[in-house]
Amino acid sequence: MLRECDLNEISDGKKYSLNDMAKVGCDDCKGCSACCKGMGSSIVLDPLDAMRIGEALDLSFEELLVNHLELNVVDGIILPNLKMSGQDEACVFLNEEGRCSIHPARPSICRIFPLGRIYEDGAFSYFLQVNECKKANRTKCKVSKWIDTPNLRENQKYVAEWHFFLKEYQDRIRAGASQEYAKQISMMILNAFFLTPFTEPSDFYEECKKRMELMRAEIK
Ligand code: SF4
Ligand code: SF4
Description:
The protein starts with 6 loop residues before the first helix and ends with a helix. The mean pLDDT is about 95. The longest helix is centred in the last third of the chain and has 23 residues, at about 150-175. It has one domain. Helix content is about 40%, strand content about 15%. α6 runs parallel beside α8. The strands form 4 sheets. A two-stranded antiparallel ribbon has the order 1-8. A two-stranded antiparallel sheet has the order 2-3. With about 220 residues, the protein is α+β, with helices and mostly antiparallel strands. The protein has helices spanning about 5-10, 45-55, 60-65, 110, 145, 150-175, 180-195, 205-220, and strands at about 20-25, 70-75, 75-80, 85, 90, 115-120, 125-130, 140.
């Protein structure tokens, strides 16, 4: 989700890269599940997130939409997000012990929390959201370790590419493109990146890049 805000108000003012140490360690979240509740529609998924969750639960994207995910408009484009439910508006993947039931397949927003991403000039860095994690006395951890993601370099490239791919279309919609155009973009993105399965997960990054290029060639 694109947000324009003063970094100094929500962070310690620093930008972090993979090799930096950041105060993110929360003692394995013992006794706390605060950031898995009341998040509204803010945990937006990218195609890799959706593929991983589908694989973990052996469910198609359509099947995930029945109980686990929902669709909402994000800066003009329809994208999936984690569903919150019940009285305490908890993530549907939070189990009775207050733990994440899909921890190895949790989406990237959950993986990096309480870090956020700041995108600039075709790349991104991380920032520490100082008001979000409820645990006091967090310990320092290397950012690359905290993110706990295989093929990290390739993954980081993909994260930036996906962000700027969406932004191209979001900027056009923001600049006054027709409703028809916005609807067409949403349908194409849902079809190409979420409803059409990535059959070889090991080729995900390459295949996703091809699909982005194809869509760029098809619709400006
Ligand atoms: S997917 Fe897991 S870590 Fe993310 S909000 Fe849900 S329960 Fe929490
Ligand atoms: S708020 Fe912090 S300690 Fe609590 S569940 Fe989230 S990351 Fe863990």
